[in-house]
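@here heads up, posting the sequence + SMILES for the zinc ion run so it's all in one place. Ping me if the SMILES looks off, I pulled it from an old spreadsheet.
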Amino acid sequence: MRKRHWKDRKNRKCPDCRRVIYYTRKDSFDRAVGNNSVCKSCAQTDRKVTMETIEKMKQPKTVEHKRKISYSVQKWWDGKREIDWQRLDPNN
Ligand SMILES: [Zn+2]
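bot reply: prediction finished. Complex structure tokens:
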């Protein structure tokens, strides 16, 4: 026999996709409200986005590192060029 007492079942809308989430336990419902947590599918999307963000955050670091190397090489060349310019400058 299945009783359907509404007060035993709580529901709230997902703050992300507005889908209704049902809670069978009051404490989990209260926690979800307190955390303003999203539904399962949104939580998964969130994690995926976070992972992508982490990957994106990783990449610029590598690019930055490469840029730093090329910058130091560029600096070295600039210094060399400066010396050449000074040598070529008749007023010097
Ligand atoms: Zn959702």
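MO: The radius of gyration is 30 Å.
MO: One more: Residues 14, 16-17, 19, 38-39, 41-42 surround zinc ion (CB under 6 Å).
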